[in-house]
């Protein structure tokens, strides 16, 4: 029998990437061919794992759904946009099936049933937001591991708590087993992910304790904590970063550097608190990389508020800023606020912030010239170079040498910067 091909398109966050990887791996195991090359794929089945964080994400998700439908394939629509809007936008058809977040882990079973001619009623299926198996192969070098889902914060602008639900934590043993399995598959870097991971708590085991347990796992791997909310990080938590297995980098979401905007965002810290947290990490590791998300144009954000954001960003020297233009999400508190900001002003602020981000990234890179990093190689390119990331999440390029492989650690000395890239020289 000819093997069927299934193609995956993932929009949005790392959680979606993790869930896509796990689903694709399952399809592969069951004999399907998989790809993530939407443009060129003529797969019989497409899975569009959507995002609804902003209007733009909705729009992109819709575009991919429509294009997949036009290709004439069977289309599975899942993810946060499906949760919110798909039922409204998509007329019932035999060509499209919508799988809500609760049943996302069952996409394989749902597709199989569909191919067998069954009409699947989601109500009769028991979904599990942690019911994904460890992925043997993924669409990238690092292995993403989900430890938590959902959020109870209800920041005034954010739709996530409505589409991913309340915070839930994955059992400790499942996480440890997932990571051990990924290491036996050959992955060298594990990225922990969730919606609000510092709130991890499973039967009394909190985030810090979980990290400690993961670091105790044998093997030559490194652990990266991806996106995290500012929290009361204890000294003992910060001390964990002395362990070379724990990458000196966090993506710590600032959102705004103005205290009055933070208040209206329902974020429970001040600009000063945020800077104290960053100082704490940098007192242990001076070049600790802090990257962030910032929203410009929350209703009522003044020029002065925006300048405060620029000021904090400069003081901290973020390694990278992901700038978002505020987008109205119906059902959220900010959507009902007065003084929505003109799109033109949002565009201007976003441009200024993106320019600052580029400048700060370039400044941050300069810290590494003459220093050592441990690159995890990702791609070997035709231009004669190997590319990958160091432990600080800085991209490094180095000349191809005899025997060089991808997905391998090499100690490198950074010998310069060329065309905005750190140049590494192999040491071992
Ligand atoms: N508009 C713009 N950006 C948003 N984010 C969340 N909600 C919105 C919104 N309504 C951004 C935040 C968050 C990131 C994942 O998306 O910066 O950290
Ligand atoms: Fe959204 Fe705030 Fe929860 Fe992050 S912490 S997912 S921004 S509500």
The N- and C-terminal alpha carbons lie at a distance of 48 Å
Which hetero compounds are present in the coordinates?
Answer: 5'-deoxyadenosine, iron/sulfur cluster
Which strands sit side by side, in order, in the main sheet?
2-1-3-4-5
Per DSSP E runs of 2 or more residues, the count of β-strands stands at 21
Name the poorly predicted regions: none
Strand content: 15-25%
Tell me the structural class: alpha/beta
Radius of gyration over all CA atoms, rounded: 22 Å
| Overall residue-averaged pLDDT value | 94
Overall outline: globular
Structure description:
This protein has twelve helices and 21 strands. The longest helix has 24 residues, at 343-366. Helix 11 runs parallel beside helix 12 (343-366). The chain has 428 residues and is α/β, with parallel strands linked by helices.
Topology of this structure?
Blueprint: E1 5-10, H1 14-29, E2 33-35, E3 45-50, H2 55-70, E4 74-79, H3 80-89, E5 96-99, H4 107-115, E6 143-146, E7 148-149, H5 160-164, E8 168-169, H6 172-184, E9 189-193, E10 201-202, E11 205-206, H7 207-215, E12 222-225, E13 227-228, H8 235-239, E14 249-252, H9 259-264, H10 271-284, E15 289-296, H11 303-316, E16 320-325, H12 343-366, E17 372-380, E18 385-389, E19 395-399, E20 409-418, E21 421-426
Parallel strand pairs: 1-2, 1-3, 3-4, 4-5, 6-9, 9-12, 13-14, 14-15, 15-16, 19-21
Antiparallel strand pairs: 7-8, 10-11, 17-18, 17-20, 18-19, 20-21
Bound molecules: 5'-deoxyadenosine (5AD) and iron/sulfur cluster.
5'-deoxyadenosine is lined by residues 53-54, 157-158, 253, 255, 293, 295, 324, 326-327, 329.
